[in-house]
Amino acid sequence: MGKTKALITGITGSGASYLAEYLVENLPDVKVHGLSRWHSTSSIRNIDHIKDKLTLHECDLTDFSAVFTTLKKIRPDYIFHLAAHANVKVCFSNPLAVMNNNVNNTINLFEAIRILNLDPVVQFCGTSEVYGLVDKKDTPIREDHPLNPVNIYAVSKLAQEKIAMSYFYCYGMKSVITRMFAYINPRRADIFSTAFANQVAMIEAGKQKVLKHGNLDSIRNLIDVRDAMRSYWIASQSCKFGEPYNIGGMNVLSVGDFLEKLKGRSRSTIKSVVNPELLRPSDVTLQISDSSKFIKQTGWEPEYSLEESIDFLLESCRGRV
Question: Which CATH superfamily hosts domain 4-183+224-248+293-298?
Answer without folding.
Answer: NAD(P)-binding Rossmann-like Domain (3.40.50.720)
